[in-house]
Specification:
Length: 326
């Protein structure tokens, strides 16, 4: 089957240091994308001058640059970019990464061969600001488990995403038809997590375990990923309780509302699962600040099995909720 037409949605903001390398890595893909949509969020460092200069070279790809009167923020900027994309599939792109040669050919072939595939995400090689390898991949840093990968391969991505998002936006490619039910991106969701959740609730999401990009870590990332060191893990357990669980409760309540509107497009049981996840996170957020007073509610909730089903680290989050300071 012929590969579907592809648009790339690239968002920029003060990315002059890295954006040329990324744009060239996209435009030199073989086959190239039919379209590159660059949506800028008010850059002041010459980012768009660089993009326009590179775009003037004789590429087979149509390059469209979008600007606005006021900053939108990351999620709204991506919404503008993907809304302007015309390809049958849309690839998300950050401004500071580098795509591996053959990326679009590999992922496009998957969409051509698998008509039911809605969204695909991949691993990435982590590199530093100068592009030097950091010696680990994105999945290794996130400690993505074989069980999580197998859940996606078996068509149970939604079950995995109830615990935590695994689809990092810089690696995501999806069918444009997904936007018919995913737009607009709601508060308080991030665009890539929302696309992955809606895709998994209504269709098939899969994962490519090969790295297809260099994912640059340079200290100024909007969203970065650190090494999974013991010190980092202990620090997360001992950091003061904040609004994380309240935020997750809001997110999944919003997701449940959207799934209810989508009706029969949603796979059986997923609306109830989203509501249960929202209730679980709301219960965690409502727990007392005092550790002693918190112990009984945590243990009662643990007996229900919901930590194993819904918490990002499963039963390990029972310990986190028991010892985390207020």
């Amino acid at each position: 089957m012929a590969a579907p037409s592809t648009s790339v949605a690239l968002c920029t903001f003060d990315g002059a240091r890295f954006v040329e390398e990324q744009v060239r890595s996209i435009l030199t893909q073989d086959p190239p994308p039919q379209e590159l949509v660059v949506s800028d969020d008010g850059s002041r460092d010459g980012t768009l001058d660089i993009v326009r200069r590179v775009a003037q070279e004789p590429w087979p790809t149509i390059v469209t640059v979008l600007e606005g009167d006021r900053p939108l923020g990351v999620t709204r900027n991506f919404q503008r970019a993907v809304s302007a994309a015309d390809g049958e599939v849309v690839a998300l792109s950050d401004q500071d990464d580098v795509w591996h040669p053959g990326r679009l050919a590999t992922l496009g072939a998957r969409f051509a061969a698998e008509p039911d595939l809605v969204l695909l995400h991949t691993d990435a090689d982590l590199v530093d600001a100068d592009g030097a390898p950091l010696g680990r991949t994105l999945f290794e840093s996130l400690e993505v488990s074989p069980q999580e990968l197998e859940a996606e391969r078996q068509g149970r991505a939604f079950d995995a995403f109830l615990r935590r998002n695994l689809a990092t936006g810089a690696t995501v490619v999806f069918r444009r038809s997904l936007l018919d039910i995913a737009l607009p991106f709601p508060e308080p969701w991030v665009h890539d997590e929302w696309l992955a959740a809606i895709a998994a609730a209504t269709g098939r999401v899969d994962v490519e375990t090969r790295a297809t990009i260099d994912y640059r870590q340079h200290g100024g990332n909007q969203i970065g990923v650190g090494a999974p060191t013991l010190r980092r893990k202990v620090g997360r357990v001992l950091e003061p309780r904040a609004d994380r669980n309240r935020l997750l409760a809001r997110r999944f309540a919003v997701l449940a509302d959207r799934l209810a509107v989508l009706g029969d497009l949603v796979r059986p049981g997923y609306l109830d699962a989203a509501r249960a996840k929202a209730a679980f996170e709301a219960a965690r957020a409502a727990m007392p600040g005092n550790r002693l007073a918190r112990a009984l509610p945590v243990l009662r909730l643990a007996r229900t099995g919901q930590y194993q089903r819904f918490a990002s680290r499963g039963t390990a989050d029972v310990l986190r909720d028991l010892v985390q300071p207020a």
